[in-house]
Automatic annotation (TrEMBL):
Keyword Kinase on entry: no
Protein family per UniProt: Belongs to the DNA photolyase family.
Name the UniProt record assigns to this protein: Deoxyribodipyrimidine photo-lyase
SUPFAM superfamilies given in the database record: Cryptochrome/photolyase FAD-binding domain, Cryptochrome/photolyase, N-terminal domain
UniProt organism field: Microbacterium gallinarum
Names of the cofactor(s): FAD
Keywords: Chromophore, FAD, Flavoprotein
Keyword Flavoprotein part of the UniProt annotation: yes
Family matches, as InterPro entries: Crypto/Photolyase_FAD-like_sf, Crypto/Photolyase_N_sf, Cryptochr/Photolyase_FAD-bd, Cryptochrome/DNA_photolyase_1, DNA_photolyase_1_CS_C, DNA_photolyase_N, Rossmann-like_a/b/a_fold
Pfam families, A to Z: DNA_photolyase, FAD_binding_7
Top-level division of the source organism's lineage: Bacteria
Coiled coil feature spans: none
Residue ranges annotated for the Photolyase/cryptochrome alpha/beta domain, each copy included: 3-132
Length: 451
């Protein structure tokens, strides 16, 4: 009697370079793909609206690709420790395979499941698939996590090179009697009343095939301009791979090896290293989205929140051209150019003096590529409370940034054209005065750190 293998898909919605799927194929028994929408386990952060939209498309693509090869994707909803155990029972499964996660709550769920299933006689194995380097393999000489990127990345590069990607399976032996599955539409991941996702549909195509196409397009057509033009939001020189990596439609190993093969991807691959740095930081600091990494920043004197200022920032009505353009791009497309992300975040924190956590929450809800590591990590970097931070000097002037990186106004003209009119909207805050207020607030932190 066959004892099927369950492949528990998580943030690895692909067939190629999927070690968990490869292990199930090598075991030689029928395979059941499983995805669990877990919004109930302790500490698990529910997905934002844009992320739910992307997940819907990526799951539909994965299910179609599995079916083409003889497999199937089972969808179930609920706390993962219960749902996975129920799936094992329903399928009389003899093995469960998954690729590792690195957030604290996720690791707790996985460790508990692994222990319970093994006690029940089920084979369980987890694999490295989402990072180039496991977080426990990259530490300082003292055995502590790195707090600065440059030595972190040098340490990574001193390790053996990332493994080669695994090939995509041509056939997947599906179970003869598949277990019950939810209908994807019943999860209601897509927005309605109102349907605000029109811009997302025009901008993106979720799924592994589109991710592979985009990687090839970038390496063949755009990589040559990357180092020179990546900071220009209108240049179209960025990879646009961040949501693909976030959902695991393409693996970092695929990106790494295909990038290395070009012989000219050094700067781009260092950005892949920054992604690694964020995940390693989350591994060692699971509360990254809620607690200052540098605890002296707990003394930062946030003024009383002005809801009208926060709302103006969210909607792109601050009267600051580059900020408004970026926030409107985000609202329409679920994406924002990285240089503009830094500028908009800096403006919220250091000109409006609004807690970085409120900005992080907005990006979590509106970005298609928001993940548990990079989103809070980058917000803390801008705030100065995180890793590799130099808070007293990093206050972006959005007007100067626009002159430097959008000198012809192409980006602003696309997203906030009224700023280029004869009667532009007035700013809601004076940049010079608010910068001085931010520096004064940071001085409070500096004095607190001295004791």
């Amino acid at each position: 009697m066959p004892s099927p293998s369950i492949v528990w898909f998580r943030d690895d919605l692909r067939l190629a370079d999927n070690p968990a799927l490869r292990a199930a194929i090598d075991r030689g028994e029928p395979i059941i793909g499983l995805y669990v929408l877990d919004e109930e386990s302790p500490g698990i952060r529910p997905l934002g609206g844009a992320a739910r939209w992307w997940l819907n498309g990526s799951l539909a693509s994965l299910a179609e690709r599995l079916a083409e090869r003889g497999g199937a994707l089972v969808l179930r909803r609920g706390p993962a420790d219960r749902v996975v155990r129920e799936a094992v029972t329903d399928a009389a499964a003899g093995a469960v395979f998954w690729n590792r996660r690195y957030g604290g709550p996720e690791r707790a769920v996985d460790a508990g499941l692994k222990a319970v299933l093994r006690d029940a006689g089920v084979e369980v194995a987890s694999f490295a698939a989402s990072l180039l380097f496991e977080p426990w393999t990259v530490t300082t000489g003292a055995g502590t996590p790195y707090a600065v990127f440059s030595p972190f990345w040098r340490a990574c590069q001193s390790l053996p090179a990332p493994r080669a990607p695994l090939p995509e399976p041509r056939e997947i032996a599906g179970a003869r009697h598949p277990i019950d599955s939810d209908r994807l539409d019943d999860w209601e991941l897509l927005p309605h009343e109102p349907d605000w996702a029109g811009g997302l549909r025009e901008t993106w195509e979720p799924g592994e095939p589109a991710a592979r196409r985009r990687l090839r397009e970038f390496l063949n057509n755009d990589l040559g301009h990357y180092a020179r033009a990546r900071d220009e939001p209108a240049a179209g020189a960025t990879s646009l791979l961040s949501p693909r990596l976030r959902w695991g439609e393409v693996s970092p190993h695929q990106v790494w090896h295909e990038g290395v093969a070009t012989g000219r991807a050094g700067k781009f691959l260092s950005e892949l290293g920054w992604r690694e740095f964020a995940w390693h930081t989350l591994f060692h600091s699971p509360d990254l989205a809620t607690q200052n990494l540098r605890r002296e920043f707990d003394a930062f004197p946030w003024p009383r929140l002005r809801p009208s200022a926060l709302e103006a920032w969210r909607r792109g009505h601050t009267g600051i051209a580059l900020v408004d353009a970026g926030m409107r791009e985000l609202w329409v497309t679920g994406y924002m150019h990285n240089r503009v992300r830094m500028v908009t975040a800096s403006f919220l924190i250091k000109n409006l003096l609004i807690d970085w956590r409120l900005g992080e929450q907005w990006f979590w809800d509106t970005l298609v590529d928001a993940d548990a590591a990079n989103n809070p990590f980058n917000w803390q970097w801008v705030a100065g409370s995180g890793a590799d931070a130099a808070p007293y000097f990093r206050i972006f002037n959005p007007d100067l940034q626009a002159k430097k990186f959008d000198p012809d106004g192409h980006y602003v003209r696309q997203w906030a054209p009224e700023h280029l009119s004869d009667d532009p909207p007035p700013p809601i805050v004076d940049l010079r005065e608010s910068r001085q207020a931010a520096l004064a607030a940071y001085d409070v932190v500096k004095r607190a750190a001295r004791g």
